[in-house]
Each structure stands twice: as C-alpha cells, then as structure tokens.
UniProtKB/TrEMBL annotation, chain A:
Entry keyword set: Cell membrane, Membrane, Transmembrane, Transmembrane helix, Transport
Biased composition (Basic and acidic residues): 1-55
Protein name (database record): ABC transporter permease
Lineage: Bacteria, Bacillati, Actinomycetota, Actinomycetes, Streptosporangiales
PROSITE patterns linked: ABC_TM1 (PS50928)
TrEMBL record, chain B:
Ranges that cross the membrane: 12-38, 81-102, 114-134, 262-284
Keyword set, alphabetical order: Cell membrane, Membrane, Transmembrane, Transmembrane helix, Transport
Primary site of residence: membrane
Protein name: Amino acid ABC transporter permease
Entries under InterPro entries matching the protein: MetI-like, MetI-like_sf
A single BP term in Gene Ontology: transmembrane transport
Membrane topology: Multi-pass membrane protein
Record-linked CDD domains: TM_PBP2
Protein family: Belongs to the binding-protein-dependent transport system permease family.
An example Gene Ontology CC term for this record: plasma membrane
Organism in which the protein naturally occurs: Planotetraspora thailandica
Domain ABC transmembrane type-1, residue spans: 76-283
C-alpha cells in the first residue's frame, strides 16, 4: 500500500490547519502527531518526487526484511542441521545408500546398554506423571468448579504463584533432601511425585477454566435420575472436558520428557535414568563422544515431543497458555 | 438442589476430591519452599560431621555468601544472562520476527516460525548437545563456516556463547506472544500513520507500543523469570571454565549438590526464591488487573 500514491486519498494539498484537524480526530495518533505535522509542513515534495522516494523506501524495506529473515533462518537452522545430517555423516567415507547408514547407527543404539532402556524410563516417568496430574487435577478442578468454597480463587492464585516460584532451581536442595528422607532416591516414583507437584497447580487452573465452561444442567438432570457424583464425573463431565484433559496430559508428558534437573539429582542408577540424563552422560563421559550413537539417540528421543506438539496444535489449536511452558 | 452445587457433591466430598492434589502440592511444592528457609540457616552438609548433626548458624550463610567472590561473580553473570539473553535478546528478536511476519501468510512465515518453535520444543539435553557440536573447537560447524579452525568459543567466550544460545532457545515464546499482541493493533491505524509519513520507528512507538504495553510487560516478566531459573546452560558449560559462565542455578548445583554444602546452597536457593516471588507477584497483579479491566 505504501507505494501507492498517498495523495490519491487526500487530493487537496494538506494545509497545516487541516493536518492538525485530521490528526486530532484520531486519538490513536499519539505523539507522532508533532513529528508528522512538522514533516508535512516543512517540506511537502512534489507528488512524483515523493512517489519515487516511496518506491526506494519500499525497495529498501523489502531488501532489509529479506536480509533479516535470511539471517534469522540461518541462525535458527544452523544448530538444527546437525540433528538432520549427523546420522548420515557418521561414516563419511562410506557412500552407500542411506538405509545402511540408519541400520548401522540403529545397531549402535542397541549395543549401548542404557540408550533404549532410558527411553523406557522416560515413558514410565512421563506417563506416570501425566496420569497422576490428569486424575488429581480433574478431581480437584471439578470440585473447585462446582462447589463454592470461600477463598477458592485466592487459593488457586496462590498455588499458581507457588508453582512458578518454586522452580527446580530454587528447590533443588530441599527436593533432594526430601527424596533422601522418604527413600525416593533412585526410584521412578520420586521423579514422578516431584515433577507432578510442580505441574499440578497450573493443571488445576486450566482444567477449572474448562469445567467452568461446561453447563451444569446436565449434571442436575443426571442427579435427578439418581446418579452418584463419581458417576456424573465419569459419564458426563469427563466426556465434555476431554480436550482439556488431553491438553493437560500432553503438556505434562512434554514437560517431564524434557526435564533434566530433577531426574539428574534424584537418580544415580543409570538403569533408571530417563533419556534426558542418559543423553547428557553420553556426551560428557570421558573419551571421544560416539557421534553416531548421540545423533541417532537425539533424533529418537526428540521425535515424540515434536510429534505431540504437531498433533496437539493441529487437533486442538493449541496455543501455549500465558505462563505455561515448563 | 442448590444452584451452587449442581452435582450434589457436598462440602465433604468436594474436600475429598481436592485433598489428594493439595497433599501432593503441599509435600512436593510448599514444604520444600519452607524447608529451604530452615536449611539455609544451618551448616548442613552432605557428608561429614555437619551431616549427622547440623547446627543452626543463623544468617551466617548469607553473610559468608556476600563475602564470597565466587557468589558475587555468579550474581553478576546472572544479571548479564537475564538482561542479555531474555530482556534484550529474546524480547527484541521475538518482536522483530512477529513484526516482520505479521499479516504475511505463506511458506516463508511457516518455515521461520517452525524453526523458531523447534528450537523451543526440543528437549534441553538435545539442544545443549547441538550447540556443543555447533561451537566445537575442532570440527564445529561454526568454525568451518567462519574459517576459524581451533577457535574455542565455549572456553574463551563462555558467557556470550550461552547468552546467544538462550536467545536461540527461547525466542519462540516472545515471537508468539507478540504475534498475538500485534493482532490487536488495527491495520487501519498503521495505515493512516504511514500515509501521514510516519517512519517505522514512529509507527512502532506511537501506534503499536501503546496497544501492546501489557503484553510487553507480561513477556518481559515471564522470560526473565524463566531465564533466571534456567539450568540448560549447565549441560553446555557446567559453569566453566573457572566459573566464567556459572550463573546462579549452576552455582547452587555446584556448591550444594556437587560440593556438598547443602545449608549454604539452600540459603542461595532462598534468595532465588525471593527474586522469583517478586517476578511472579508482579505478574499476577498484572493478570488480575487486566481481568478486572475486561470485566469490571
């Protein structure tokens, strides 16, 4: 639009008075009013000259934008390229077909005693946390949504505040101590409970929003026909808020799947460690890092998160909620 | 049938529904936070005499932290890290991307957004190694591209390295948030400003900024909070070399869990907690204010 002759829309030459009137009519103009008025008043170039300058300006803007985007593309893709190329660069001298490469690298995954089992551990910990978070959060959110308790909103805000304040970083010492005293070191349960405690407040908060949005009249009629509260929850409320439950489950799985700090401090046995920790030990262990192993393992370990993200964003139009990320 | 309780839960059963979640939150979120305060007042250690019989040392940990060169260095590095990578890096790059990509559907937008998002959703262990590989001294992609073989980015410039890394890692959130915010700016206002000859900078300052002020504040608070607590750089530099990239989270880990000074580490943790509290409190006040403004 900029390259169109602007004066077409305002055929008469703008006097200073008109300009002032025009700008004052629009409250959003803000303080640029002064700058533009000065500009318009001091030097009003001929239409032709102006359109040429606009064209130059437009061309420069396009070039600038393209350069910026190219640089950004390079910046963001450069580190990622390795993840796409390394599995095939592992044996640069062998120039045979791609499938042989992947087979060879896959074998190195099988040979490593911890690689594949760590993904199993990730599944256990992520699945366990997601199940716990969804069940407990659904129960709590339902009760908080349907029964008016004094101070309910304050409690929810307080919990949400706590969950963003008490991060793994801020609580690593007491969490480690707590797990030690409860004999939860080196157990999946320790990781699941620790991570679930941090995820629950936000999960309750989001699910309560979902439950508030479902009409209570179904529940009332079910109650008239003699359904118990748990039956109502199971057969009426849960089907209604299923997208919310799915969102929470995927969000919890993605969070736990990527978590490094908590399993890192709570687990010492590599046989129990999830993919995040095993991958870290793969490249910090002494000796030359096994690049074939690291690259294939990284790819395999990343895939579920990417797939989940794509799935949820396609299916539910998932926008990350304000404070909800990790 | 009271309208306040359509499912007939009743107070007692409702409490039973809420209780399990509250117990878990209480034990694994609230209690650790309170316990940090107590542990921070003791000389508790992982091993040795002070492990068996920890003594209360009052504010001793805090005074010795203030005298500790390593702690002050870590604090300063943390300020650089938060300001450099979040407030300046992520917020500015995120806004620039949202601005350039606004109202511009097409493959370019999808590819750029996809890559930026990918950097954000990949697990931290993976991206940490991707950056180690990128910056590797001998075979790193960056040295190959720049024809600077043997340049040790992570050893000679650890702080700039992890700052740039964190910009790469976290820009997606700012980009998405600003992208949503810019949808609130009516195109007609931008158009009129442009027709009146306002430069891009003037448009941003006078038309866009007043409308997205709330988003800017929200964004800055959240990304600062996250960056302040971010542990991913541990997986790249582990705070080294010689503590030159030892931001507070890494410092706490190194001192408390690696070095065994649990009491001292808890004291530093408590300071982190307090800073987090300030961030979160301001954020919640903002959220509440906005809700009230929308539905008075």
């Amino acid at each position: 639009m900029t390259r169109e002759e602007p004066d077409q829309h305002h055929p008469p030459p703008r006097s200073e008075g008109r300009g002032r009137f025009w700008t004052e009519e629009r409250p959003q103009r803000g303080t640029s009013e002064d700058a533009t008025r000065e500009d318009a008043a001091s030097r009003r170039p001929e239409p032709r000259e102006r359109s040429e300058r606009n064209q130059t300006r437009h061309a420069l803007a396009t070039i600038g934008r393209a350069t910026f985007l190219a640089v950004v593309l390079g910046f963001f893709s450069l580190p990622l390229l390795w993840l796409a190329s390394a599995p095939f660069d592992a044996h640069p001298s062998i120039t045979t077909s791609v499938p042989e490469f992947t087979l060879a690298n896959f074998r190195s995954l099988l040979d490593n005693p911890y690689a594949l089992s760590s993904l199993g551990n990730s599944v256990i910990q992520a699945g366990g946390s997601a199940a716990l978070v969804v069940v407990l959060a659904a129960l709590a959110a339902y009760a908080l949504s349907r029964v008016r308790v004094p101070g309910r909103d304050a409690l929810l805000y307080l919990l949400l505040l706590l969950s963003s304040v008490v991060t793994g970083t801020a609580a690593m010492v007491p969490l480690f101590e707590l797990a030690t005293r409860l004999n939860l070191i080196d157990t999946h349960l320790g990781v699941v409970l620790t991570l679930s405690g941090g995820l629950l407040p936000a999960a309750i908060f989001i699910l309560k929003d979902f439950m508030d949005g479902t009409p209570a009249s179904y529940e009332e009629s079910a109650r008239v026909f003699g359904a118990s509260p748990l039956q109502i929850l199971r057969h009426i409320v849960i089907p209604l808020v299923r997208p919310g439950l799915a969102t929470i489950a995927v969000w919890a799985v993605a969070n736990v799947w990527g978590s490094f700090l908590q399993p890192f401090i709570l687990l010492r046995d590599p046989g129990k460690s999830p993919g995040a920790v095993i991958l870290y030990t793969l490249y910090t262990e002494g000796g030359a890092p096994r690049l074939d192993l690291i690259s294939t393992f990284s790819l395999l370990y990343s895939l579920p998160v990417v797939v989940m993200y794509v799935f949820v964003s396609r299916r539910y139009g998932f926008r990350f909620h304000g404070g909800i990320k990790r | 049938m009271s309208p306040a309780d359509p499912a007939g839960l009743g107070r007692a059963r409702a409490a039973g529904f809420v209780l399990p979640a509250l117990v878990l939150i209480g034990v694994f979120l609230v209690f650790p936070a309170l316990w940090t305060i107590y542990l921070g007042l003791t000389d508790y250690r992982l091993t040795g005499l002070a492990a068996a019989d920890p003594q209360v040392v009052g504010l001793g940990n805090y005074t010795s932290a203030l005298e500790d060169e390593r702690f002050r260095n870590s604090l300063w590095l943390t300020v650089q890290y938060v300001l450099g990578s979040a407030v300046v890096g992520q917020a500015v790059l995120g806004f620039a991307l949202a601005w350039v990509l606004r109202n511009r559907p097409g493959p370019v937008k999808r590819v750029v957004e996809g890559l930026v998002l990918l950097a954000w959703i990949l697990p931290s262990s993976v991206v940490a190694f991707l950056w180690i590989a990128l910056l590797d001294r001998d075979a790193g992609t960056l040295n190959a591209l720049l024809h600077t073989p043997g340049f040790a980015w992570l050893l000679d410039h650890p702080m700039p390295s992890i700052i740039v890394f964190n910009v790469w890692r976290g820009t997606a959130f700012s980009m998405m948030l600003y992208g949503a915010a810019l949808e609130n700016v009516p195109p007609s206002h931008l158009e009129t400003a442009r027709l009146a000859g306002a430069s891009t900078f003037q448009q941003l300052r006078d038309v866009v900024l007043p409308r997205i002020k709330g988003h800017v504040l929200t964004n800055l608070l959240l990304i600062s909070l996250w960056t302040f607590n971010d542990f991913t750089s541990f997986q790249i530099t582990a705070g080294g070399p010689e503590g030159r990239s030892e931001i507070l989270p890494v410092y706490i880990y190194n001192v408390a869990l690696s070095g065994g000074q649990l009491g001292f580490g808890a004291a530093i943790s408590f300071l982190v907690l307090l800073v987090n509290l300030v961030f979160a409190f301001v954020y919640l006040r903002l959220l509440r204010g906005r809700r009230e403004a929308v539905s008075p």
